[in-house]
Amino acid sequence: MSQRTSQAPTPVVSRDELLQRVEGDMQLLQDLVEVFREDLPERLRALRDALERDDLDAVFAGAHAIKGSVSTFAAAAAYEAASQLEDLARSGKDDGLKTATDVLEREISRLQPALREILES
Predict the structure, then answer these.
(1) Cα separations (Å) of 88 from 46, 50, 54, 57, 72?
(2) Are 89 and 56 in contact (CB under 8 A)?
(3) Which residue range is the domain that position 37 belongs to?
């Protein structure tokens, strides 16, 4: 009989770290989230377009920009996903880029409601 250990899932956002980064300034946090939400669709579109064109330099640039954005929010999984995509693009190989992009998009889709929840709390 195998034993399963239950671990609490990693939070999408480290709330305490995020609030520390903005020094508890909820208006600043709201402004940062608003800019993120406004810029994100275009960044993701550009990333997908670069992927379609096999433009690894543009994939790298897009992943790097998104990594910077999500790092602001102490979103470790989204940061790691963007970093992995960035590394794959930097390597010059397109193996795994589609999967890594899907993972990044999934993590970002988890991040947005987590940010909304923090703003509403």
Answers:
(1) 17, 14, 12, 11, 22
(2) yes
(3) 15-120
46-95 pLDDT per residue, tens: 999 999 999 999 999 999 999 999 999 999 999 999 999 999 999 998 88
pTM as predicted: 0.87
Looking at the structure of the chain, the number of domains it has is 1
CA distance 5 to 86: 33
In whole angstroms, give the CA distance from residue 30 to residue 17. 16
Domain for residue 115, yes or no? yes
Q: What is the CATH number of the domain that holds 52?
A: 1.20.120.160
Quick check: is 57 in a domain? yes
Residue 6 C-alpha from the chain's centroid? 25
